[in-house]
C-alpha cells in the first residue's frame, strides 16, 4: 500500500470488518451509509472518510454492497492470507490463547507453543504440542512461522523478542506488560487488557472527583 494511512483509521477497520461479517451472517447484502453508521456507532461521514483512504466504496443512492466491502476490508487487513504462528510461554495466558479456535478461523494458524518449563514441555493443548524453547529456531525456519505471540513474564519479553527476530519472525503480538523494542522492519502489536480495564474504571469514577 503506497499511501500512508493513519493508525487511528487502521484501528477502526477491524470493527467495520466485524460488523460486516455479522451483517453477512444475517444475510444482509446491501446497507445504506446511515444504517451502517447507526449500527457501528461512527458517523456516516467518518465511515466515508475512513474508507476513502482505500479508494472509497459505496455509491450515492445505493449505499454499500456488504459482501464487496467485507472482501475488500479482508484484503486490506491481510485476512485473505494465512499466517503460521507460535506462542511463546505456555502458562495461563498462552494456553488460553491456544485454546481459542477463532484465530485459526481467521487465518492465524497456531503451530506450537514453546516454554522453558520442563513440566510443560511435551503436553498438548488441543492438538498443539508445547515444545522446548531450544527447538524454536529450527521450528520457526522449518515451519515458515511469521508471527510469534509473547506470553512470557515481562522480564523475558525483550530477550525473547530478540531471539524470535533473529530466527526470522516478522510480527510480534506482545502480551507481556512491557513495550518491546524492535528493528523497523519488524511489526509489533502490544496488547494490554489492564489498560482497557483502567479505562472502564475511569469511566465508572468520572465525575466523582
Ligand atoms: P504464567 O506464569 O502462567 O506463564 C508464563 C510462562 O512463560 C510460564 O509457563 C513460563 O515457564 C514461561 N516462560 C518463562 N520464561 C520463558 C522464556 N524465556 N521462554 C519461553 N517461556 C518462558 O503467566 P501468565 O498468567 O500466562 O502471563 C503471561 C504473561 O502475560 C505475563 O507477562 C503477564 O503479565 C501477561 N499478561 C498480559 C495480559 C494482557 O492483557 N496483556 C493479560 C494477562 C497476562
Automatic annotation (TrEMBL):
<dbReference type="InterPro" id="IPR036291">
    <property type="entry name" value="NAD(P)-bd_dom_sf"/>
</dbReference>
<dbReference type="InterPro" id="IPR058236">
    <property type="entry name" value="Rex_actinobacterial-type"/>
</dbReference>
<dbReference type="InterPro" id="IPR036390">
    <property type="entry name" value="WH_DNA-bd_sf"/>
</dbReference>
<comment type="function">
    <text>Modulates transcription in response to changes in cellular NADH/NAD(+) redox state.</text>
</comment>
<feature type="domain" description="CoA-binding">
    <location>
        <begin position="78"/>
        <end position="179"/>
    </location>
</feature>
<keyword id="KW-0805">Transcription regulation</keyword>
<feature type="DNA-binding region" description="H-T-H motif">
    <location>
        <begin position="15"/>
        <end position="54"/>
    </location>
</feature>
<dbReference type="GO" id="GO:0005737">
    <property type="term" value="C:cytoplasm"/>
</dbReference>
<comment type="subunit">
    <text>Homodimer.</text>
</comment>
<dbReference type="Pfam" id="PF02629">
    <property type="entry name" value="CoA_binding"/>
</dbReference>
<dbReference type="InterPro" id="IPR009718">
    <property type="entry name" value="Rex_DNA-bd_C_dom"/>
</dbReference>
<dbReference type="InterPro" id="IPR003781">
    <property type="entry name" value="CoA-bd"/>
</dbReference>
<keyword id="KW-0678">Repressor</keyword>
<dbReference type="GO" id="GO:0003700">
    <property type="term" value="F:DNA-binding transcription factor activity"/>
</dbReference>
<dbReference type="GO" id="GO:0045892">
    <property type="term" value="P:negative regulation of DNA-templated transcription"/>
</dbReference>
<dbReference type="InterPro" id="IPR022876">
    <property type="entry name" value="Tscrpt_rep_Rex"/>
</dbReference>
<protein>
    <recommendedName>
        <fullName>Redox-sensing transcriptional repressor Rex</fullName>
    </recommendedName>
</protein>
<dbReference type="GO" id="GO:0051775">
    <property type="term" value="P:response to redox state"/>
</dbReference>
<feature type="binding site">
    <location>
        <begin position="89"/>
        <end position="94"/>
    </location>
    <ligand>
        <name>NAD(+)</name>
    </ligand>
</feature>
<dbReference type="GO" id="GO:0003677">
    <property type="term" value="F:DNA binding"/>
</dbReference>
<keyword id="KW-0520">NAD</keyword>
<keyword id="KW-0963">Cytoplasm</keyword>
<keyword id="KW-0238">DNA-binding</keyword>
<dbReference type="InterPro" id="IPR036388">
    <property type="entry name" value="WH-like_DNA-bd_sf"/>
</dbReference>
<dbReference type="Pfam" id="PF06971">
    <property type="entry name" value="Put_DNA-bind_N"/>
</dbReference>
<comment type="similarity">
    <text>Belongs to the transcriptional regulatory Rex family.</text>
</comment>
<keyword id="KW-0804">Transcription</keyword>
